[in-house]
Amino acid sequence: MGFHDDCLTGSADGCVEEPVLLYPRGLQCLQSLQALVPSLLRHEVETALEKLDLIWDRGYAWDVFLDMMRTQTRNPFLNADIPRHFTDSTRSVLVDWLIQVHEMMHFQEETLYLAIHLLNRAVREIKVTTVNLQLLGMVCLFLAAKKEECLLPEVSGLCYLMDHTYTKHQLLRMERRVLLGLKFDLSYCPPLLFLLLLASVARCSPKAVWMARYLLELSLLEGQCVAFLPVQLAGAALCVSRQVLKEPPTPGGAAAWCLASAVNVGSETSMLRIMHILANAAAKAHTQETCATFIKFSSPETMNVSRHPGLLKDAGVPGLCT
Questions:
Q1: Global pTM?
Q2: Close Cβ partners of 283 (under 8 Å, ≥ 6 residues apart)
Q3: pLDDT tens digits, 225-234
């Protein structure tokens, strides 16, 4: 289903494609969306946004949702946009370290997703040597915290976390470079918000949501996922979670999932590709050196979802959720 002001067009990287996913077909433009979308979906989206405390006035809920869909299409990525020296291996090590720092700082989850998004954009917009990638990552986390957090760490504390490899002056100078390179645009609608929205509409169980959140955070480590839209990543994470858990159907569960599926954007091929990426990442997560996310989601507080046998055995992804 398309959420551009104009119809979505094809892309070789799967970021923005002809909207033919799941249910229903043919809702391709914002102009036709309000007339064609089922009133029940609109009601469920409004209710979900209210439950998530993302709105204060239900009358604006649908407009907030449409703005979320528009915002995610800004600053689209193509795989070719990532500099060659910023390899998948280098990137995963840096992101894993940022996940550890983020957890140590007790930041909000949205801060992490924004930080990685800013990092992806920054390496495309400004020239940074390999030796300064850690500094760039810390600056992106710092900027994300300034946007999302109430309490901020001292700059000297950030330098300490980098073993004083860089000075306060270098950090602040890099911050200025990043802001100028990004034209001071820090707007972003993270996949986590779409995940929670879809999960609420689909009536997913707490365990299914925790597993999908785990898969979504694993996507941050995967360079291939940079090219996909947040809503695509969220939908794929929920699909994999549902397939792995195989929970018994609940009354109205199938209908609720159909409604949630209506929010997805992109082709069936793209969705299956993301699902395979996430499933493979989860299957090997416990064997990787970059295992901060695996450890984080192996605790009782997260229902030990990262250790679920269905994820570790790499059973594959047979197809889309129904």
A1: 0.85
A2: 311, 312, 313, 314
A3: 999 999 999 9
